[in-house]
UniProtKB/TrEMBL annotation:
Its EC number is 6.3.4.4. Belongs to the adenylosuccinate synthetase family. It comes from Streptomyces roseoverticillatus. This is Adenylosuccinate synthetase. InterPro entries: Adenylosuccin_syn_GTP-bd (IPR018220), Adenylosuccin_syn_Lys_AS (IPR033128), Adenylosuccinate_synth_dom1 (IPR042109), Adenylosuccinate_synth_dom2 (IPR042110), Adenylosuccinate_synth_dom3 (IPR042111), Adenylosuccinate_synthetase (IPR001114), P-loop_NTPase (IPR027417).
Length: 428
């Protein structure tokens, strides 16, 4: 099983970090292919808790080579501080590889991100303010700065000047902000160049060779399917492609080389930031999910919006990603409810709809159609096999599997590495 993709099936924060870390011990490379430090991936190893933003979760597994692919946007200051934070905790980060084609997030990108949100006012997206959107915009506009530009000073100067020519007009004339000096940005970026240099590599060549040699490569998505700029709830999305295709464009590995695509699926639903969310709860159940599930953002500290499981979304994730498996996380959080509502379809303008509507206006007023499933009260956090689960928890998992369109091959019953029930091996 040489290459597999692991991605979020909902709106992010499904538990991707834990799932990646779990497999990390058995894989040779863990590769981030999109997004940047907007991600917040939590990994709990014994009594140690790690919050990773830009680095692949595989960095915590000795023997695994972490890779930042060309599709990722990299804030060099964040990269270096995340690395030194891990080094201080005794984690060896020397194997990291960084694509020379990855785009750099600079201070002007974070500034533009923040002022744009302020300018949008009530219509804001609720971004993480990390400069993600403006950096991808520059990439598509062909005025981006890439990692490799750090090693050609005159090119770097020309590119930063070209980018700021236009951006300064917007900052000064539209947003009433002071213009940003190109020389200052160039100096700052050059200050990172030497420290980053040992990691820079031709990651496309390395990854393709690794797969050809039978090495196991895991592509780790940031964000989630419904935050995808093409397939998500646009414009309330991030600016990259977390869906499976992004693993190809974001690394230079062709789709014929990918064998398995695993969707990480929370046993209920959460979302951070603005945008439609049909099963969102505003009552004590929503509050209970937030408290029991610890649903507070790892990156921005914002409370996550919480709601019941939405099978329409899970089916959609199966479709647009070609999922082969699900990893169901946080089943333990649902312990204690007498009955658990699950959204099986939507009602839109009086009609029952089974698939995610392609029209944004329809999705905005989709009402969930719920089926009630019986709950359980037993502690499931020690369960090691599927049959250790109470009958009603087993039935809940089976019902979700049937509705979602792909087998559930693992179940999370707690945040720790060992709090997982493995049903089918992901690596066989
Ligand atoms: P990611 O962005 O997809 O990596 O997810 P986050 O780290 O933002 O949020 C997931 C949270 O759930 C983290 O606090 C994890 O430690 C925690 N978590 C992951 N899997 C489980 C699980 O099966 N049960 C419980 N209770 N917590 C989990
Ligand atoms: P992980 O990898 C949840 C959301 C933001 C906002 C929108 C756009 O931890 O699952 P951006 O800063 O990307 O331009 O913000 O996307 N968002 C996330 N929500 N988990 C994430 O990452 C997210 N990364 C971005 O809240 O609504
Ligand atoms: Mg997260």
């Amino acid at each position: 099983m040489p290459a597999l993709v692991l991605l979020g099936a909902q709106w992010g924060d499904e538990g991707k970090g834990k799932a990646t870390d779990l497999l990390g011990g058995s894989v040779d490379y863990v590769v981030r292919y999109q997004g940047g430090n907007n991600a917040g991936h939590t990994v709990v190893v014994g009594d140690q808790k790690y919050a990773l933003h830009l680095l692949p979760s595989g960095i915590l597994s000795p023997g695994c080579t972490p890779v930042i692919g060309n599709g990722v946007v990299v804030d060099p200051a964040v990269l270096l501080s995340e690395l030194s934070g891990l080094n201080e905790r005794g984690v060896d980060t020397s194997k990291l590889l960084l694509s020379g084609n990855a785009h750099l997030i600079t201070p002007y990108h974070t500034t533009v991100d923040k002022v744009t949100e302020r300018f949008l006012g009530k219509r804001k997206i609720g971004t993480t303010g990390r400069g993600i959107g403006p950096t991808y915009a520059d990439k598509i506009n062909r005025v981006g700065i890439r990692v490799q530009d750090l090693y050609d000073e005159s090119i770097l100067e020309q590119k930063v000047e070209a980018a700021l020519d236009f951006k300064n007009q917007i900052l000064a004339k539209l947003y009433n902000r002071r213009a940003i000096e190109a020389a200052q940005i160039v100096d700052e970026l050059l200050g990172y160049a030497e420290q980053i240099k040992p990691f820079v590599a031709d990651t496309t060549l390395i990854l393709n060779n690794a797969i050809d040699e039978g090495k196991v490569v895991l592509f780790e998505g940031g964000q989630g399917t419904l935050l995808d700029v093409d397939h998500g709830t646009y414009p309330f999305v991030t600016s990259s492609n977390p869906t499976a295709g992004g693993a190809c464009t974001g690394t230079g590995v062709g789709p014929t080389k990918i064998n398995r695509v695993i969707g990480i699926l929370k046993a209920y639903t959460t979302r951070v930031g603005a945008g439609p969310f049909p099963t969102e709860l505003f009552d004590k159940d929503g509050e209970a999910l937030r408290t029991i599930g610890g649903e507070r953002g790892v990156t921005t500290g914002r409370d996550r919006r919480c709601g019941w499981f939405d099978a329409v979304i899970a089916r959609y994730a199966t479709r647009v990603n070609g999922l082969t498996d699900f990893f169901l996380t946080k089943l333990d959080v649902l312990t204690g409810w007498e009955q658990i509502p699950v959204c099986v379809a939507y009602e839109i303008d009086g009609k029952r709809v089974e698939e995610l509507p392609y029209s944004q206006s329809d999705f905005h007023h989709a009402k969930p159609v719920y089926e009630m499933l019986p709950g359980w009260s037993e502690d499931i956090s020690k369960a090691k096999t599927f049959s250790d689960l109470p009958k009603n928890a087993q039935a809940y998992v089976k019902a979700l599997e049937e509705m979602s369109g792909a087998p559930i091959s693992a179940i999370g019953v707690g945040p720790g590495r060992d709090e997982t029930i493995e049903i089918n091996s992901f690596l066989s």
